[in-house]
Design a protein that fits this description.
It is built from two helices and no strands. By secondary structure, the chain is mostly helical. The chain has one domain. The longest helix has 23 residues. It starts with 10 loop residues before the first helix and ends with a helix. The mean pLDDT is 95.
Length: 54
């Protein structure tokens, strides 16, 4: 298995995706800190990815 980077000319979209990823990570960390289970954290990730894809 090798690392396969891809090129992209959409700089703004790439930066926005990185910023949204960090917001999702914060929300998952908050859910973990509040003692929610794996299903709650998975649902936060799923909803976050769905919103990112819109």
């Amino acid at each position: 298995s090798y690392f396969r980077p891809y090129t992209n000319t959409d700089v703004v979209g790439t930066e926005l995706g990185g910023a949204v990823k960090n917001v999702i990570a914060l929300a998952v960390g908050m859910a973990a800190g509040l003692g929610f289970g794996d299903n709650a954290r998975a649902s936060v990730i799923t909803r976050g990815l769905a919103e990112t894809a819109r």
